[in-house]
Design a protein that fits this description.
alpha/beta, nine-stranded mixed β-sheet
Length: 334
């Protein structure tokens, strides 16, 4: 059976961005000078980036939102670019997950107040496995999906069991995670790796799983450590490929021990308008490359370009453009 398209499942949320002149001291008042609503989370960010790269690509969203204004906003944003949102469940039990993002004018310094909302009750029962017909099933973020991150009596997580069922259908599986410092981090992630074909994460997350620092004391990248981290994670059971990204470079290691690295492109001063969503953009570039079977060096450079385009705008999705125009955004600034 030939399968087409990419399914993106997991976190859906909105960012309520509020501009302030300064962060107040405890008990004090500060005026909000402006506010806006933006999309966020793995599903909208990665899904929208994929559709912007290639309008012909089938992208289906899986997740849960509240029966409220924010939920409608998220669904409208995704459907407006052609994402199939028919598998996103709407609940009246919880509001749509959101973050209040207090942003200081001038410095861009941000403080987040997050409500887990409907993401907290999104579960395996919300995914119709019988009708899942994609080529790649990507889900994120581990450590922010309560119903999937639980360690059950058999030592496994619902996430690992979901991915096992997906793989049994002949669908490639992919995950993204968030940096998290709880004691369950390694257990949750390591339980999932044997059921993943692809893992796309940053160097901090990879180092946390392996228990090895990817950086030196002066914060410079230790590439030998990154290689050791990736070898250790592959031995934990990843079936096809591990991709690690960081500001300096991208790295790929596959099941046949093929290791590839690709330096990031140098950006002109003032190019970066915001870093929100850059990791999701890199992930979208990887998923698109894997879907189209790009060689690893092309995959890493292509994904770097997608992330660079994301950096050119202050929000998480506006900067990404069609794949043919990725270089033009950077060339305009050189």
């Amino acid at each position: 059976m030939e399968r087409n398209g990419i399914a993106v499942a997991g976190n859906i949320l909105t960012d309520n961005i509020k501009m302030i002149e300064e962060y107040p001291k405890k008990g004090m008042l500060v005026t909000i000078t402006d506010q806006s609503l933006a999309i966020g989370g793995c599903v909208p960010n990665t899904g929208i980036d994929l559709k912007k790269l290639d309008k012909s690509l089938i992208v289906k969203a899986y997740g849960k939102v509240g029966d409220d204004v924010n939920g409608k906003f998220a669904l409208d944003k995704m459907s407006s670019v052609g994402i199939d949102v028919s598998n996103v469940k709407v609940t009246d039990q919880m509001p749509t997950s959101y973050s209040d993002v207090m942003t200081v004018n001038g410095t861009g310094e941000r403080t987040f107040f997050h409500h887990r909302g409907a993401n907290k009750i999104f579960s395996m029962q919300d995914i119709d496995l019988d009708n899942l017909d994609c080529k790649i099933f990507h889900i994120g973020y581990l450590m922010l999906l309560d119903q999937f991150d639980k360690i059950e009596q058999d030592g496994r997580t619902p996430m690992s069991k979901l991915l096992e069922k997906v793989r049994e259908k002949g669908i490639k599986t992919s995950i993204d995670i968030v940096s998290e410092s709880s004691g369950n981090f390694q257990k949750v992630v390591s339980s999932t790796l044997p059921y993943c074909d692809y893992v796309i994460i940053n160097e901090i997350e990879a180092g946390q799983i392996a228990g090895i620092s990817p950086r030196n004391q002066d914060d410079s990248l230790n590439e030998q450590n990154v290689f050791e981290i990736m070898k250790k994670l592959m031995k934990m059971g990843i079936n096809e490929k591990l991709i690690v990204h960081c500001p300096e470079k991208g790295f790929s290691l596959d099941k046949n021990d093929n290791f590839v690295s690709c330096p990031s492109r140098k950006l002109p001063k003032g190019f970066i308008k915001g870093s929100v969503g850059a990791g999701d953009a890199f992930c979208a570039g990887c998923l698109y490359s894997l879907y189209n079977e790009y060689p690893d060096d092309k995959m890493l450079d292509f994904s770097n370009l997608v992330a660079i385009n994301c950096l050119s705008e202050p929000d998480s999705i506006s900067g990404v453009c069609e794949k043919e125009n990725l270089l033009k955004v950077l060339e305009k600034q050189l």
